[in-house]
Amino acid sequence: MAAQGSAPFVGPIRVRLFGLTIILLLLSLLAVSADALRQFEADLVPEMDRKAVAVGQSLEKQISRGLNYGIPLEKMRGTAEFLEVARKSHVEIKYVAITDKSGKVLFSVGDAPAGLAGHLGKVAGDGFPSGDSRRVDKLLLSAVPLKAGDQIVGGLHVGVDQKFVQNKLEDIIYDVLIVLLVSLLITFELLLFLMTANISRPMESVHMLMSRVEVGDFRQNLAHDSRDEVGRFITTLNGLINEVNSHYQQMQAKVAEFWSMSGPEATQRRKTLGAHISQLLNRVHFAKDGVPDVVREKSLVDVRTPMFIFIFAEELSRSFFPLYVSELYVPVPGLSQEMVIGLPISLFMLFVAIGTPFAGVWTDRFGSRRIFLIGAILAIAGFLGTGLAPNLYHLLGWRCMTAISYALITMACQGYIVAMTTSENRAQGMAVFIGAIMVAAICGTSIGGVLADRLGFSVTFFLSAALALVSAIFVHNTFAKKTTDPSDEKPTLKLAHFFALFSNVRFAVLMLFGAIPAKLILTGFLFYLTPLYMNELGHSQSEIGRGMMIYFIAMVFGTPIFARLADRLGLQLLPVIAGGLLAGGGAMVLYLWNDTIGVVVGLAGLGAGHAMSTAPLISMVPSVCAKEIETIGQTTVLGVFRILERVGSVAGPFLTAALVGLFGSAHAIAALGAIVLCSTVLMALFFAAAGVKPRGPAAEAA
Amino acid sequence: MKLTTKTSLTIIVILAFAVVVTNFLNYYKYQSTLRELVQSRFVVVGLDIKHAIEGSVNLGIPLSQAENSQEILTRVKAGDEQILSVEVFEISGTTGKRIFGTDAASIGKNVPVDWVKSAERPDATSWQFDEDDAYGVGIALINNFNKRIGGVVLRYSRAYQLGKIDAMFQTLSRALLIVFAVSSVLAFIGVYVFFRPISTTFSRMTASLNSLLSDETPVLTAENAETLEEKHYAEFQDKTRKVLEVLREAEDQGLTSDGEKA
User: Fold this and answer.
1) What ipTM does this complex have?
2) Of the CATH numbers 3.40.50.970, 1.20.1290.10, 1.20.1250.20, 3.40.50.740, which one belongs to the domain with range A299-331+352-490?
3) Cα separation of A305 and A463, whole Å?
4) What global pTM score does this model have?
5) How many beta carbons lie within 10 A of that of residue A40, not counting itself?
6) For residue A45, is pLDDT > 70?
7) CB spacing of B240 vs A239 below 8 angstroms
8) What is the DSSP letter of A113?
9) In b/e form, how buried is each residue of B174-197, taking b as 16+ CB within 10 angstroms?
10) If you count residue pairs, one on A and one on B, with CB atoms under 8 Å apart, how many are there?
11) Which of A386, A511, B23, B120 is the 20 to 30 Å CA partner of A140?
């Protein structure tokens, strides 16, 4: 495996390129938005003016009615209240005033702009020309004359906020910031891939090859596909090695020729050449048969980038999927409407759980590349089918297909990482994998909401299909054709393993009160109910996406911090308990605050809680299952753990739907929180009774 | 493809994604703001008509006999070229019948059921609808007993808004292309500057390897190597040249001479 970015100039260049991209992105978005504001103001201000005149004329008709009954303008009762109602009915109208015919203000509502008196006097002098709007301070003021009969007795002035258009554009500022954030994260991912694939990794290979040649090893060539500067150098370098081997082959051929000849001259030549060959072979190794082995260096980035793109595609629909299902709702006998809406998520989780062990076996048999490509084809079909699904039953079918593709692709990627890492650096490899998933989840969830808001649900699924295709192209071009390592022992899961592990009470408690509730609240609260409840609160898709992003951000930033802290302090059980209490407590906040703030606090608590507990929970497994690991191995134990915790993922949406039916959305989230909280307390009590110290590893009391 | 081209293209694709999506967000915002502004203006106009008609109804005149209504509708339509039609309908049971309108041919005909349902919705006094060639707003007419007795419906030009939206799309696209072109050029220049040392190093090393292959004096040596890469390469080249010399010499001896040179 190539060390990441160890070529001396790659690190600084990557930083500079990232800086350049940030600057260009900021400047471009600023320029595009500033120009849009200028154009919108030029185009929309006349429209606002027309509306202000319409409002003025409407008010004028009602005031004129009073005037025509002979009521003097200054003595009209309730005029200020009447104007206030008009002002409040139109967001862009900030000021309304009635003046006498000299321009003196008789009634007004809203904040008067600076320089108003001068303006009103001038307008009064001009006879309150209708449709002639003028800018005064921050307002655009339009006037309408007020008449009693044919006599002008005063004027009505309507002030429109000049910043209305700017405020309208500010409505989308969060969406633009999401675009910026997603662009930067994509930039980071793509530059990482580009620099690794085109510079770091080839440079590492070149260094390796040159070092080998320096000690006289001419037995290898480098595989490469690019035609850039590095590619041309490698081609020439390979040419040199081939040339050396070719010369050696010719020498050997000549020796053979001389062996077939007789006579003193042939003997002498044989001796001379033989001496040369012996001299060379003492310090130089040539390729067997003159054909060097082709070496292809692999990198974790090979797997990170396509995984990132695929998860990005999958997460695009995260913020609206339950809403999309509710659009296709048809009654299903025996299930409530809420349960039917949760059904596709549960089925998806179920098929991922069922498909994962098979996908693992197939990856071992057919290789990561082939399995990923098959998975990508299924994913493309799944996304397209989901976007085009005419009813719930079709949707369920397509989602099951997408779930299988998810299982295939994740296992293909994990298989690739396993094949190119050793037991020492496998955790680092998996961290690369999980990092890609989390960053993609942030990007997909947030931008998916923005896209769905404008383009609709179906088009967003089509974009997911396009992204899945891009991930397949990446894998087709970067994954080595053969990745499985035959020497690696492949454990197989048996039903007996499940029974063996469940007979270990500690494992059962950890599973039932720790891992399963964690997944339960993840799929129930985050995946299923957050989109539905935020929609119920009147939030747009973009806002729902941004809300859900909070969880993933807490995970991305919190996980490494808490993991380091737990490692440094030697904690296992304590972060699991603290995380469970935080996740459950966060969700329970919705019992008191059943509004947007409650959801945000709940998601932040869930994210922070999971960031705190996820890694220590997994690391507790070997501690509580030391005996089982001795007999069936750690990989099998962790495999069983992974499958069993998915019970929570499958049950989450269903249980939540049932709770929604009983308590309503907000209290259903709080109830989920209560379940997690109680489970955590029970788990803590059990381990306390078992003598496990909260600060030490769980095996201490064994 | 050169390193600079590949990297520039990657950055340019990301820039394209960002500016295109941002521009679309702006475009959709313009579309919704324009529609909102125009619609709210026509709601104001519709409310004016509503107040005038309700004034008569509240004096005890049946809605169908509020004769000045027709005059008001005609005047309102004539006052704004965007207005395609204004109609007043009366609710009778579950249906609604046009009783006044600027389109004489439609008077007496039933209105769509949706209009009646919208006018009778207790939680709103106005509603909006879309047609192929027009947008519309409706305002419920309510009598003194708070009963919904009918509605005013104002249809206004869709073409006007579509024309403006189309023009704005073109304007924004032009600006986008300019911004995109400028940032792409800057990206290319930036990448070129950052990659020049690498490109130069690899070009020099490749040229030197080629000279080694053609048995010429290498252009890159330990003396003129500038970067760490070049220094490493120079060491490699030195050792490889020695091996090549031995091979070539041996080959020459084996193929052309009787071995005396050895």
Assistant:
1) 0.81
2) 1.20.1250.20
3) 17
4) 0.78
5) 22
6) yes
7) no
8) P
9) ebbeebbeebbebbbebbbebbee
10) 248
11) B23
